[in-house]
């Protein structure tokens, strides 16, 4: 038998064996598991975990995402009860009922963190934290508690919030709080607040806050709600996407079918707005997200 025929037969056999192998053995499957922790900023605008899952899947990732609630105040409060220091708390927070609520909140959050071997745990502190606790004194039991329950090799991401009350808050204080937190505890930083500041300043035609949308104005006349709209949550998730994947969010789909703003809160009814942005607006938000993430990288590289 000629060598060329033998070579062809060997090639056919090898090809058949490769076809029979599971795809995961031929090419490494891209997987990301992520849980978001925070207050209502993560819940509004279609919920961040659903949007991140859809964005990741659009790039070929096998994504597993979930959301949890937990804030530094509850962790600090429980820690002070354990140390017998509850007398230092506000009077309303010194009761047994308050201790039980703090314990419930903390245990629920930590159970979610340890429920799966998440690759990333992404938290947003309450929007008031940078102003009520600018030095981050509430953070040690919060961050240490979460880290202790994370899977080996998992990364903790601090997701910067945005100004909720323009009359009392400012972006500079928020920026200082999150940059200091990320540096002190060795965390990844998702500078979402920087992106919100840019859009709020430069593109007032994009309603990144819920009360800027026509749907909100129709249902909640006269009310102000700075929770993210579908536009704001899309922007927030573009920032987080860039941080956790290292990839540019530019080119992500402008429409994410099945995701709507179903957020119900005392500040306004669910808007039912679908996650469907114009290509131009989506591209601008993607580019803004990439810009602020790259700025943080450059700043860190210069240290």
Written as H for each helix and E for each strand, in order along the chain, the element string is: HHEHEHHEHHEHEHHHEEH
- Give the termini separation: 67 Å
Helix content: 40-55%
Shape: globular
| Spans where pLDDT lies below 50 across 5 or more residues | 1-7, 9-27
Mean of the pLDDT scores?
A: 88
Counted by DSSP, the helix tally is 12
CATH class: Alpha Beta
Rg on CA atoms, Å: 23 Å
Largest sheet entry = 5 strands, parallel
Q: What is the fold named in CATH at topology level?
A: Rossmann fold
Q: How does CATH name the architecture?
A: 3-Layer(aba) Sandwich
Structurally, the number of domains stands at 1
Number of strands: 7
Identify the CATH homologous superfamily: SGNH hydrolase
Helical/strand content category? alpha/beta
The strands making up the biggest β-sheet line up spatially as: 2-1-3-4-5
**What percentage of amino acids are in beta strands?**
5-15%
Properties at a glance:
303 residues, five-stranded parallel sheet, 7 strands, alpha/beta
Please explain how this structure is put together.
The protein is α/β, with parallel strands linked by helices and 303 residues long. The protein has one domain (29-301): SGNH hydrolase (Rossmann fold). Helices cover 49% and strands 12% of the residues. It is built from 12 helices and 7 strands. The strands form 2 sheets. A 5-stranded parallel beta sheet has the order 2-1-3-4-5, sandwiched between helices. The protein has a two-stranded antiparallel ribbon with strand order 6-7. The longest helix is centred in the last third of the chain and has 23 residues, at 279-301. It is globular and about 55 Å long.
């Amino acid at each position: 038998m000629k060598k060329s025929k033998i070579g062809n037969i060997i090639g056919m056999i090898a090809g058949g064996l490769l076809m029979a192998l599971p795809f995961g053995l031929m090419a490494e499957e891209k997987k990301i598991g992520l849980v978001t922790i925070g207050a209502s900023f993560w819940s509004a605008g279609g919920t961040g975990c659903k949007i991140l899952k859809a964005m990741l899947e659009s790039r070929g990732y096998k994504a597993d995402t979930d959301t949890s609630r937990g804030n530094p105040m509850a962790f600090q409060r429980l820690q002070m009860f354990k140390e017998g220091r509850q007398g230092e708390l506000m009077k309303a927070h010194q009761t047994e009922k308050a201790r039980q609520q703090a314990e419930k909140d903390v245990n629920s959050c930590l159970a979610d963190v340890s429920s799966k071997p998440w690759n990333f745990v992404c938290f947003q502190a309450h929007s008031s934290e940078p102003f009520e606790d600018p030095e981050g004194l509430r953070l040690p039991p919060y961050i240490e508690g979460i880290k202790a329950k994370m899977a080996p090799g998992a990364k903790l991401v601090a997701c910067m919030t945005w100004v909720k009350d323009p009359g009392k808050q400012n972006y500079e204080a928020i920026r200082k709080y999150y940059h200091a937190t990320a540096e002190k505890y060795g965390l990844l930083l998702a500078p979402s607040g920087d992106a919100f500041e840019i859009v709020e300043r430069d593109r007032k035609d994009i309603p990144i806050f819920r009360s800027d949308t026509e749907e909100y104005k129709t249902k909640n006349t006269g009310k102000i709600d700075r929770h993210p709209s579908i536009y704001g949550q899309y922007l927030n998730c573009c920032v987080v996407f860039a941080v956790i994947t290292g990839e540019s969010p530019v080119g992500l789909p402008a429409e994410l079918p099945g995701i709507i703003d179903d957020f119900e809160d005392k500040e306004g009814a669910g808007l039912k707005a679908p996650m469907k942005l114009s290509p131009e607006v989506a591209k601008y938000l993607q580019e803004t997200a990439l810009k602020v993430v790259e700025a943080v990288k450059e700043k860190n590289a210069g240290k």
